[in-house]
Amino acid sequence: MSQETELFGSPTKNGKSDLNLIDLNVKDLKIAIKGGAISRPEARYLVDSYYQIQEYRKASGNQIFSLEKEQSPFFVLQAIYLNLERLETHIRKILDYYSDSTEIGLWAKSIIGIGPVISAGLQAYIDINKAKGAGAVWRIAGLDPSVEWLGKDRAEALVEKYEHLSNWNERIIATFTEANRKPDAYYAALGNDKPTATNLTKYLAKRPWNAGLKVLAWKIGESFVKVSGNPKSLYGRLYVQRKQEEIEKNEGKLFSEQAAAILAKKKIGKSTDAYKAYIQGILPPAHIHARAKRYATKMFLAHYFEALYHMTYQKEPPLPYAIEHLGHVHNITWREAS
Prior knowledge:
The chain is mainly alpha-helical. It is built from 18 helices and 2 strands. The chain folds into 3 domains: 3-101, no CATH class; 151-205, no CATH class; 227-337, no CATH class. The chain has helices spanning 3-8, 26-34, 40-69, 75-100, 103-109, 116-125, 134-140, 151-161, 168-178, 184-190, 197-205, 211-226, 234-251, 256-265, 273-278, 285-313, 321-324, 334-337; strands at 10-11, 17-18.
């Protein structure tokens, strides 16, 4: 047997590779996974890997399609594609078992539009011991538009702005308040070290959200858009309803200040449709779509936090700030969502 055949298997009659791939025995892993064999960091890695492999597999499929049209051979690429496809399936099954191992994982999968990979990702990324409310989940998922990624230069400028304050606690509070962030994690990161302009700048310059969770939040929104035609999908309906509300407000130019702020802050080509909308004091369709999608995602994550809190502590979670302090009506509970 040649080295190529050992790696990729032998071609079958239809030209595809008969792969001699070593399968992961996921059925034997099921009991171990339910017993806690997968750690949260490993689960996060598996979720990230799943989506990366999925993209590689799609790219390989597109390349195979192109080669097939050109009547060019694609034996090796076909073998790689099938390996990726099988590995993707195995990881999905493992994450399915992982999400089955908890009550919150099962609850999440009961939601139309939420599959095992997203459910496992949420279970791996959201720590109820660290997230004190739905707002904290939104921020770490990158869904709080008031929290910006400062970067090194803006962080340096912000720290310098308050260097005249001799009391370090006052200086830290001032910088974090202007950045619309909380200093708790910074203090925790310091440990026994003393605050300095250098470590304060370095901390503020970091991305203020979790990149992996932000990707999951985006995928959640896309899923709700896909199921928005299903009358049984709560979050699909919320997306549709919110989008209509946003369209009506936009047509009434209620977002004109936001449109002007975006034009002032971002460089947008004058020949683009986006610029033509903003200059008229309205938001472009893509922006309205994103706002409605974000709303549905945030509602789901709020319910996810409420469900996780109740399942962990066996009591109702504290009311979100908007409900307890601003009097907003919250007429949908996490129990009604599934």
